Amino acid sequence: MRRISHRHLLWPLLASTSLLAGCITGNSPPAPETVLLPDSFAAPVATTEQVEDIAGLLPVNDPGFIALRDTALQTAPDLAAALARINIARAGLRGAGAARLPNVTGQANVTQQRINPAQFGGVGGDDAPGGFAIQQDQTIFSTSIDASWDADLFGRLKAAQRAATLRLDASNADAAATRLALTADIALNVTDYRAVAARRSVIDAEIADLQGQEALTAQRAKAGLVPEFDTVRAQSLLRRAESRRAPLVAEEGAILARLATLTGQSVQQVQAQLGEGGALALTGIAKPALTVPSTLLRARPDVLAAEYRLAAADADLASAVREQYPTFSIQASLGLIALALGDLFSDDAIIGSVVGGATVPLLDFGRIGARIDQREAEAALAFADYRRILFTALGDVEASLVAVDAADAETASLQQQAVTDRDAAKLADIRYRNGLDDFLTVIDAQRNANASAEALVISQANAQRQRIALYRAIGGEPQIATETADATQAREAP
Q1: Which residue has the higher pLDDT, 356 or 484?
Q2: Which of helix, strand or coil describes residue 302?
Q3: In which family does this protein belong, per the annotation (predicted)?
Q4: For residues 233 and 220, what is the distance between their CA atoms, to the nearest angstrom?
């Protein structure tokens, strides 16, 4: 037997290795750390190394908010969808991990065949020398266990698994962002609901006052002390106040409908959890001290999700680049084959093989290159999305910090105005009853008092809304502690 030189076995490997110098390397996207943020916020805010307790920015003293929030975190349709996406990503990760493990299959066959001895050149016919004959009708019984394994020497499958891991992390961050959005949206709607109830109370008090004034002017007009026109004016003001109440009922219904959508409940269930006549729950908390923008914003769930997707896109690019490299695999088979079922488990029936091989892409007419270009473009898109989301977060915080200060200043001014206008209305009413002022003065004073009282309620609700917006812009209370470090480590893994 001619001896085969090992050189003949090695030359394909050496040739394929020499082709690696001409492979496309792929351009990785910039790292998240290359996106520079300011050292501090433009709006005035105290700086600390760790964000203070910011739960007080929410209406935590409102039992209705607590009940609706807890329900939403269990039954909200949006959160159920986010959790389903986590399960999808988790299944993808299991599949990517399984691709790196051996694939083992089993099979059993029974084959009935008929052959023509003439195809063997007459050997094995009836007149063959030595009495050697080939059976024309054969039944072959066989069974085997086959295994194959991709050694993944260049890390293509490992990079794909890393991408799947990062997508799972991104899905978890998306779920955290959904929880944050649900909490903030429920807080906003509960605040609006309480504000509408407070405004309705102001209008109800105004209606009661106007009813008294109508009765008083009617009595004075009947006695000839004031003109009949004063009664008409009182009635006009009363009808105007009653007309302002109706839109609030419609607004309240719209808020209840939004809360039902957010929590996945009926309007009746939402009303039961809100309770009757709850007051507007003002937090009164000042702006919390914040960390520097680079630390604060990168902890937001939506920013974390974008960072994970950027790292996953980079891993996908690495996997595509590695498709250019040789693939080394091992295949093994162990089985039994016999012409009679009774001989299937005999020693002679045992067959087996082990094959090691390498596959080298030589000419694919640009298929791999196109996939690499596609992955590069996807990575560039992921980086652009990351920058957009990061600077959107920066803008959200800056806007919320300014809005909180403005809302507080407005509320403070309106509180003083409401007290002044209320005192003026009381004084005008006293002077009118004593015949010192006409009814027009009473009307103007009462109109100003009612307007400032309702404006104060709206301003107080707005101050609460701006605090909720700040809570959301900050990213809420930490739900995921180590995502940024994990994403960086996964991105830089070999």
Answers
A1: 356
A2: helix
A3: Belongs to the outer membrane factor (OMF) (TC 1.B.17) family.
A4: 14
3-state secondary structure of 31: coil
pTM for the full predicted model: 0.80
The pLDDT value given to residue 5: 45
Secondary element (H or E) of residue 327: strand 327-338
- In 3D space, the residue among 235, 194, 220, 219 whose CA is nearest the CA of residue 443 turns out to be 235
Alpha-carbon gap, residue 407 to 461, rounded angstroms: 9
Per the CB < 8 A criterion, the answer to whether 8 and 253 are in contact is: no
What would the pLDDT profile of 329-366 be if each residue is shown by its tens digit? 999 998 888 878 777 788 788 888 888 889 888 888 98
Which stretches of 99-155 are DSSP H helices?
Answer: none
Q: What does residue 333 show for φ and ψ, rounded to 5 degrees?
A: -145, 135
Strands 103-114, 137-150: pairing kind: antiparallel
pLDDT at 397: 93
Considering only 35-44, 189-198, 297-306, which range has the smallest mean pLDDT?
Answer: 35-44
Cβ atoms 220, 230 nearer than 8 A: yes
From 30, 49, 140, 161, select the one nearest 95 (Cα to Cα).
161
Please tell me the distance from the alpha carbon of residue 303 to that of residue 212, in angstroms, as a whole number: 58
Render pLDDT for 263-289 as a digit per residue (tens, 0 to 9): 999 999 999 999 865 667 665 667 787
Six-digit token pair at 330?
A: 């091992």
| Alpha helices (runs of H) in 434-482, residue ranges in sequence order | 439-474
- Residue 280's H or E segment, with its range, is none
Distance CA 36, CA 292 (A): 12
137-150 and 350-359 as β-strands: parallel, antiparallel, unpaired? Answer: unpaired
| Residues 78, 80, 83, 89, CA torsion sign | negative
For 3, residues 6+ apart whose C-beta sits below 8 A from its C-beta are none
pLDDT single digits (tens) 194-214: 999 888 888 888 888 778 777
Question: What number does CATH give the domain 29-102+155-326+367-492?
Answer: 1.20.1600.10
Backbone angles phi, psi at 374, to 5 degrees: -65, -45
